């Protein structure tokens, strides 16, 4: 099976006033075409750093990073990124915010506008195209961010704790929404999260990172049927998988 994303023996060291700090050490992982992989770990372990390496926003100190079997030398069209905050421009409408990448990437505007409307339909916001971000809930704003990420039809989606700022009910709603979108689009996804339940609910595999310097210490296949409903959160098998992951984070 071909890989949408590959990291091989990747390390990253930061230079600080106190000397060098090793953020990542010998990180190796793969995300196959069409696979949903969650990356789970404690704060400061380097999860977001892995995402930035995959997005071409940071260079690795050592090792190799490839997207679609090509070395990553900077941001590229193969990837789309969603961060913790949607970072919408408040003076632009929902439709205009989704269209923002069109100019940067040189997309034909008429085609991009049509695709933006189709994506707003996909994320359930077609009726809000003319609204402004302040008129939307936090969950709706994040859905705008997801639509914007999909505008140029990237092969790999990189999501950095996109639900972290939302309340519990909104998070559950967006878990279902993201599962539905992924089921229709079948993109490859690397999803960063602190939430064990979120990781198990969404992913085909969950990778666990150690404390800094971060490395992969478990690769757990999530053999749960799809589509997954919120009722599964109380399923015995689901809870057993969560418990298997939780042992990495138990207090000494």
TrEMBL record:
SUPFAM superfamilies: P-loop containing nucleoside triphosphate hydrolases. CDD domains: ABC_NrtD_SsuB_transporters. Residues 7-236 form the ABC transporter domain. SMART domains: AAA. One of its GO terms (molecular function) is ATP binding. Keywords: ATP-binding, Nucleotide-binding, Transport. Pfam families: ABC_tran. Belongs to the ABC transporter superfamily. PANTHER family: ALIPHATIC SULFONATES IMPORT ATP-BINDING PROTEIN SSUB, TAURINE IMPORT ATP-BINDING PROTEIN-RELATED. This is ABC transporter ATP-binding protein. It comes from Kosakonia calanthes.
């Amino acid at each position: 099976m071909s890989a949408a994303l590959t990291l091989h023996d990747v390390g990253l060291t930061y230079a600080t006033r106190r000397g060098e700090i090793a953020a990542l050490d010998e990180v190796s992982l793969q995300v196959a075409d069409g696979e949903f992989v969650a990356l789970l770990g404690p704060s400061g372990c380097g999860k977001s750093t892995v995402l930035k390496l995959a997005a071409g926003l940071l260079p690795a100190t050592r090792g190799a990073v490839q997207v679609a079997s090509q070395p990553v030398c900077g941001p590229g069209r193969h990837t789309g990124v969603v961060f913790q905050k949607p970072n919408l421009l408040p003076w632009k409408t929902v439709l205009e915010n989704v269209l923002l990448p069109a100019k940067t990437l040189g997309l034909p505007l008429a085609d991009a506008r049509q695709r933006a409307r189709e994506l707003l339909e996909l994320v359930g916001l077609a009726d809000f195209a003319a609204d402004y971000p302040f008129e939307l809930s936090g969950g709706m704003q994040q859905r705008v961010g997801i639509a914007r990420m999909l505008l140029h039809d990237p092969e790999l989606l990189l999501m950095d704790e996109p639900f972290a700022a939302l309340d519990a009910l909104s998070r559950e709603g967006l878990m279902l929404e993201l599962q539905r979108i992924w089921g229709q689009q079948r993109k490859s996804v690397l999803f960063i999260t602190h939430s064990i339940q979120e990781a198990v609910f969404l992913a085909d595999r969950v990778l666990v990172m150690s404390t800094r310097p971060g490395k992969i210490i478990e690769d757990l296949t999530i053999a749960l049927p799809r589509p997954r409903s919120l009722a599964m959160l109380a399923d015995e098998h689901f809870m057993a998988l969560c418990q298997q992951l939780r042992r990495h984070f138990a207090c000494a």
